[in-house]
Amino acid sequence: MDKTVISPKTRNRKFLHKLEMRNVDVHACYQCGRCSAGCPIGDYFDMSVMQAVRLAAYGQEEKLLQSDIIWLCAACETCATRCPNNIDIPGLMDVLRELAVRKGVPADQQRVPAFHKSFLGSIRRWGRAWEVGLIAGYKLRSKDYLGDMGLGMQMLLKGKLKLSPHAIKGKTEIKDIFSGKGKEYDR
Amino acid sequence: MKLSYYPGCSLEGTALDYDHSVREVCLTLDIELIDIPDWNCCGASSAHMTDHEVGMRLPIRNLLLARELGHNILVPCAACFQRLKAADRALRADPLRWDVQEYAPDYEIIHITRFLAGEDILQTIHSAITRSLDDLPLACYYGCLSLRNPHITGAPNWEMPDTLERIVTALGARPVDWSHRTECCSGSLTMARPDITEKLVGDIAVAARRAGAQALVTDCPMCQANVESRQVCKIEGEVCLPVFFATELIVAAISGHYPESQQKTHLISPEILRGTLAENATVKEESL
Ligand code: SF4
Ligand code: SF4
After folding, report:
1. DSSP at B2
2. Total domains present in chain A
3. Do A80 and B148 lie within an 8 Å CB cutoff?
4. What is the domain range of residue A144?
5. Which of B32, B130, B169, B240 is the most buried (most CB within 10 A)?
């Protein structure tokens, strides 16, 4: 973070506008640090939560999209719950992740988006999340073939994994949701 | 009493036994559960984290189905509960934004633990138990999503909840005072970054053990699976702590049995509960 140059020239107004539309008031932050203090994953981030909020207020989208904070944040809501200014920090992370996906910014933590993609793939296909299918999808996407093999077998033997998916009747409605129906007005 | 029921995907898979225990408890309480017909996945963390529209529209479809039934909606999964509540709030504020003509149902979305910890229901449970859990020291573990963010969940005591404690007390167990009741176990990272999850789960288990607990009790299917599967006991002689569902304990205390099929669902040996039930054949006459 030491070589970070922040200049009005790099302020992304569209990003700031998007945050405003989603009621994420990053400008209300007075850098008290409560968000960072309570974050359970903070030790693993490459910047602190309060730094991320300040960078967002400066409109520094590009820096944030490249940070691993957006993929390691677990959306536990501890920060937002404790923020004296009620800033929706997990909402900020949601916006950033969505932008990173839409813009195709490669993630350092590639396994995390691979997991989300597999999870959503399962819902898109069946209407419900089917664990066996999404684990298989995740393995292929993340190339993490061997991780958790033992655990998977144990779960299987204990009958904790459903062997075949259940497809809901309203599958077309789910397809419409994923194809962006209702989103036509560019949100 | 009739309630609409939204089990959610976990309760069809890794937490199938949770679903069974919820249904059994409701049967005992004379509550009729009506499954929301053709419900879909609420999207969990993955949807709202990467696609806001999908993250809202998935739970909205469920709410519109539940509106047809009209009853209050009972939700056992913390993540589903939070997503349904978030969608309900957004929909009430601006239904047209979500292509719904109008939306003002008078149902409530209820999380299982707050429901079971209600005074009357707790009394009924207390009088129905045939085996007391005889002072079994338990660490009540809430995790995140049934509590936070309180703007969405409506949880009255999000930093100091006591609903699980009230339930296990009614069963005769002894809730311990401990530090990590509402800490995150990082369930959404468990596959992609098991190293982080192991650390967080480890801290939770250490804290529970330090307080003298012999098991954890939760209401969140992700927490249950995660804290059992990612707990590593490195020190010699250290025992891993099993994680029970609150409803699993209720069923055990009411029936007085802890069947083998239920014991088998645990990744960590639940011997402590079996032992407690076996040793303690009589209910102690105690007031709540
Ligand atoms: S808790 Fe809120 S006000 Fe304090 S530093 Fe974090 S975002 Fe800023
Ligand atoms: S929501 Fe994300 S940033 Fe906030 S405390 Fe939780 S993990 Fe940290």
Report:
1. E
2. 2
3. yes
4. 111-179
5. B169
Q: Indicate the residue among A74, A103, A132 that finishes a domain.
A: A103
Same domain, A155 and A130: yes
Phi, psi of B219, rounded to the nearest 5 degrees:
-125, 5
Question: Do A98 and A19 belong to one domain?
Answer: yes
> What's the residue count for chain A?
187
Q: For the whole model, what pTM was predicted? A: 0.94
Report how far ligand 2's centroid is from the alpha carbon of A74 (Å). Answer: 6
- The answer to whether residue A187 sits within a structural domain is no
In a domain? residue A16: yes
Write A45-49 long-range contacts (CB < 8 A, 24+).
A45/A69, A45/A72, A45/A73, A46/A1, A47/A1, A49/A79, A49/A89
Which residue CA neighbors atom 8 of ligand 2 most closely?
A39
ipTM: 0.92
| Any ligand 2 atom below 6 A from CB of A153 | no
Q: How far does the centroid of ligand 2 lie from the alpha carbon of residue A35, in Å?
A: 8
Q: Are A87 and A25 in contact (CB under 8 A)?
A: yes
Task: Walk along chain A (187 residues) and give the pLDDT tens digit of each residue.
Answer: 556 677 888 899 999 999 999 999 999 999 999 999 999 999 999 999 999 999 999 999 999 999 999 999 999 999 999 999 999 999 999 999 999 999 999 888 889 999 999 999 999 999 998 887 777 778 778 777 777 777 877 777 777 777 788 889 999 999 999 998 777 765 6
A3 falls within a domain:
no
Of A129, A138, A187, which is closest to B41 when you measure between CB atoms?
A: A129
